[in-house]
Design brief:
The chain is of the alpha+beta class. It has two domains: 34 residues, no CATH class; 58 residues, no CATH class.
């Protein structure tokens, strides 16, 4: 966030099929390649890992199966269960403890 000043852009857009996130303003833009980790629904207050999301089209989403394997080794349910209750901070908390998936 600090290195690319990600908070200083007015708009963002991501393309699922190319896995590109674009941050942009009138006079600047930056692109990032990403691997989808999961999604949070404010309607149901639930988290869904990308490896279990059938509507996700990102080609590298299955790389996150390493997260599930790590959770199985460490016996951590929220890394193993594909879908569970959470809040808007769940994704931040979970991705902060996951191993490198590259």
């Amino acid at each position: 966030m600090e290195k690319y000043k990600a908070d200083n852009y007015n708009n963002w857009f991501y393309n699922q099929s190319s896995e590109i996130l674009r941050l942009y303003s009138d006079n600047k833009e930056v692109y990032f390649k990403y691997i989808p980790v999961g999604s949070f629904s404010r309607n149901t207050n639930t988290w869904l890992w990308s490896w279990a999301n059938e509507s996700s089209v990102e080609p590298r989403k299955l790389k996150t199966l390493k997260i599930k394997e790590f959770g199985e080794k460490k016996k951590y349910e929220n890394l193993v269960n594909d879908y569970f209750e959470g809040d808007e901070f769940t994704g931040w908390e979970l991705t902060a403890i996951i191993p490198n998936t590259h």
